[in-house]
Each structure stands twice: as structure tokens, then as C-alpha cells.
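Let's practice the habit of predicting before peeking. Look at the sequence and jot down your guess about where helices and strands might fall. Then scroll down.
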Amino acid sequence: MPSDGFETSYVPGDLYDVLSTLPEVRFHAGHLFLRYFWLAGTPSLRHTPEQEDETREDDKNALEVVTWDIAVACLAISIKFHRDVLYPLDIIYAHEYLALAPHELGFEDLENAQRDVLEAIQFRIASGSNPDAYMAELWQALPMLRKLVGFDGGWARVQEHAWDLLCEALQSPEVLQYPTSILTALAIMEGVLKTLTWRYKTTGVDSRGKTVKKRDNSKSLRRLAMKAAKGVKLDIQDILRISDVRLSFILGLNHSVLTPTLWVHLLRRSGRSARSGLVIVERCSMIRASSRYSGRFHPM
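Done guessing? Here is the structure:
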């Protein structure tokens, strides 16, 4: 929605607040961004080897403009999905989005970019990319999970760790090959382990109420957490029907080494076919190019 004013005030409900406090919006926007380029293909530059370096530089700059247009468009779509159209019906004005791009981005340019993204994904905005729905379902469906991390601030800390992992996983485009349910399960279990390890260390007692030895380090505390969370792990695998995923392999790893590349490696080791795990729609045969950059780029 366009507005007459162009000042950005950082108050609850504005773009700054949304990006700072709502990880589901950031994840959804990143997921949309990856889906778009998965379907449309990376724009290819139209130039010949004999073209001068200046022309090549112009093409490179134009590609950067396209990328920024799509990135801002994906963010706008995500926020509309989570905030504008549905509850809490909190409108973010267009100038907030336009200010994000390093180049001059006009209102019509943003509208065209959003239209391109929506047509590429065939208007399937959610398409399984909603981890918070899986998290809420797990919390409501699993009494053992509520009992294990139902202490004050426990579930909130688990979700915080899970969102950190999920957003980190988006750094690898191959993450699109796997269902959001599997990614959420892995992230929640890692969040449970990190939360329990933190609680054992700060309270001095484990989940059974036994005193933790002072000489126990983070690794030994994590082993205690893994033992306490074994039932929750099995319940999550059962409710999400991903028993073939070897969650036990990832639960023994430290969060610091859970890089996007390793995420993909672990998922491949799960024995689940990458093709069977696709949660995005099939590749489009042709994506309509925006009038803003159709003269320079074409879908691959």
C-alpha cells in the first residue's frame, strides 16, 4: 500500500519490528526467494564474448537489481501473508519496503516483482513452508514434550534455537529438496537438547531431579539431555511420519557444526529420497518476465 509519508518510525508493528521479532516472516521470505529462483532459474546474461567489460559490468549490475527486486518482493509477500491480510491486519506501507533496496526501487517495480514471484510459485504462497504450524502441532500433540520443556521459558527457548537453525539452513538452496516437517523436527530436537543442557548447567539438576556433578561439562550434560529426550524424539518421528530419518545421528552433533552444508549431508544420509521429499511445486516451463528487466534477462 503506497503512502504519502516517507519517514520510517520504529514502533511496534512496523517493518523494523516485524523483522526483529518474527522469525517465521524471515524464514518464509527466504523460502519464497529460493523457490522463485528454483522455478524460474537464475537469469542469464545476454552478451557475447566480444562485448566490452563495461557492458558486462552493466549486465552484472542489472542482475543485482533483479535479485534485490525479488528479495524485497518475497519479503513483502511474506509479511502480507503473516500480518497484513490475516490477523493482526497490521499494514506495512510500501515506502518501508522500497527503502530496503540499495537502488531506486519504485512502487510499480515492487508490484511487478511480486506478480512475478506469485506467478512463478503459482500463487501457492505457503506450500509447506510454515514451520511454526508444525511447532504448534508438536506442542499440542505431545504431552511428553510439554512435560520435558514445560518449565518457565523452556518452550520459548526451544523455539528460539529451532528458528536459528531453520534460518541458517536457508543458506543452502538444496534445503528445498526436503519437507519442512523434517527440517522442523531436526531443529526442534536440537533446540530441546540445547535447552535441557542449558537448564542442567544453570540449575544443577537434571530432568529427573538428580544433582548434576560439578565436573560435568557441556558434552556430558548433552548426553544426559539426549537420554531424557529419547521418548520425545521417537514421538516426533512418529507424529510427523519420518521414522526413516536418522535423527539420532544429528542429535549427537554440536550446534556449532550444524552448517547448511552439513544439514544437507545429514538429510541425504537419512535414506529418504530427495525427490520424494520435494515440497515445492514442479518447475514452470516459462516464467513471465517483468517489463522492467525482460529486455536484458530471460528465464533459463
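How did you do? The chain has two domains: 15-123, 131-268.
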